[in-house]
Amino acid sequence: MPRCATKRDTVAVMAIIDQSADPNRFLSQRNGCFTYKRRVPVIVGTRDSRAPIIRIALGTRNIIEARAKRDAYERADRELWMSLCGGGEHSAAVAHHIAATSRARALGFTYRHLTSILSEESGPAILERLRALQDAKPGSPEETAILGGVARPQVSLGEAFEFYVNKIAASELTGKSPEQRKRWYDTKKRAVTAFEEVCGQKNIGEITRDDALRFYNWWLVRIAPDPESGLKPTRVANSGNKDIGNLRVLFDRYLKHMGIRDLQNPFEKLNFTEKKKRRRRLPFSTEWITNRLFATSALTKLNAEARAIFLIVAGTGARPSEIANLPPECIILDHPVPHIKVEPREDPDDPREVKTESSIRDIPLVGVALAAMRKFPGAFRSTVTKAAPCRRLSTSTCERTDCSPAKSTPFTVSGTHLRTGRRRPSSTTRCGNC
To answer: Which pLDDT score, from 0 to 100, does residue 188 have?
Structure first.
């Protein structure tokens, strides 16, 4: 492990120990007034100009108020030290800005750079900031936070995205499998890449409404081109809305996390109207199932696991990814009603989310689905049968062997009852999409 990573981990461990040790940690009292007092970690050293001891008057005799202010200073110091130990100049610049924002909030002010304070705040508001400096030492972090002495770091959209992934949205990814995390990352990254191809690489604070409209118009040509241009739509509104929506969320959450309140989200209220068409998925006919899907040669090019998954999907209406990723404990074959359980997997070594809350369900196994599942009672192990690869493999096999109806007819395997060709009740029917 690199040395900087080891230092970063050490600071994190120290922070956890500090938080659990004493509710009055880093608080000292003199003449009844509380002070935030702590030692700068040795591994941080002179990179923090306040070393070796930090002393900050909290201006209160109330222990509850002192603890609240202590927590704000403690959080700011922890973020600063971890970033100083974990990155280069860019990480340090971001850390200093976050720390200054946190300190300003602890002192009851909104952090603004000095130029913004002088141009936007009223005389009484500026005077209130100056009065708060009476007990602060010249050049101290408190003075810097109140007077806006730390310039906003120049962060590109790509750097802001990586910060969003690793810091802001990190807790949202803990329940996802590696494949689900990759799919989540790729979807968000695609929007950033497309924007940079259209508007060039820009710092996130320099992106304007004009840039957002330029990206919107780039999508508009692909979704609803001018009839006189002779061009035909190549994408649907949903695709453009996903990219613009992902950029809107990235911009909004990054600014909130950094405490930046003087910038408007340039992607706000930009979206395309989606036509809501009710697409009815018809079932396969009994004759088609018997003569095509269950023909002796129809699925011979699939391996045994993929073939079993295909048949279970056809028999249950479950998604291919749900069947391919079933753990052994969710396959119950020794029950009076053999069934499978579709539910989130909370194993920290092998987590997995389900698509929606309503996707958590028990699905009975009958007929060919039960027979196929009995061949793999301990779950599916082959990597080729996992989620999207399994779906692509099954789809391509159907196309090669002429098992799919005409493309103009919206038929689906998933949700079809194998014996009658009728749709299952809505409580167990699924669209078949991963």
So the answer is: 94
Q: What are the φ and ψ backbone dihedral angles of 331, each rounded to 5 degrees?
A: -110, 105
Q: Is residue 148 within 8 Å of residue 113, measured between CB atoms? A: yes
Of the candidates 303, 310, 327, 328, the one whose C-alpha atom is nearest the C-alpha of residue 382 is: 303
Averaged pLDDT, 250-273? 87
pLDDT digits (tens, 9 = 90+) for 400-433: 555 555 543 444 444 433 333 343 443 333 333 3
Contacts 24+ apart (CB under 8 A), 1-9: 4/85, 4/86, 4/87, 5/86, 7/43, 7/85, 7/86, 8/82, 8/85, 8/86
3-state secondary structure the chain: CCHHHHHHHHHHHHHHHHHHHCCCCCEEEECCEEEEEEECCCCCHHHCCCCCEEEEECCCCCHHHHHHHHHHHHHHHHHHHHHHHHCCHHHHHHHHHHHHHHHHHHCCCCCCCHHHHHHHCCHHHHHHHHHCCCCCCCCCHHHHHHHCCCCCCCCEHHHHHHHHHHHHCHHHHCCCCHHHHHHHHHHHHHHHHHHHHHHCCCEHHHCCHHHHHHHHHHHHHHHCCCHHHCCCCCCCHHHHHHHHHHHHHHHHHHHHHHCCCCCCCCCCCCCCCCCCCCCCCECCCHHHHHHHHCCCCCCCCCCHHHHHHHHHHHHHCCCHHHHHCCCHHHEECCCCCCEEEECCECCCCCCECCCCHHHCEEEECCHHHHHHHHCCCCCCCCHHHCHHHHHHHHHHHHHHCCCCCCCCCCECCCCECCCCCCECCCCCCCCCCC
- In residues, how long is the chain? 434
CB atoms within 10 A of CB 29: 14
pLDDT digits (tens, 9 = 90+) for 202-217: 888 889 999 999 999 9
Report the C-alpha gap between 376 and 391 in whole angstroms: 18
Does position 110 have pLDDT exceeding 50, yes or no? Answer: yes
| Cα distance between residue 60 and residue 141, in whole Å | 19
Identify whether the C-beta of residue 424 lies closer than 8 Å to the C-beta of residue 317: yes
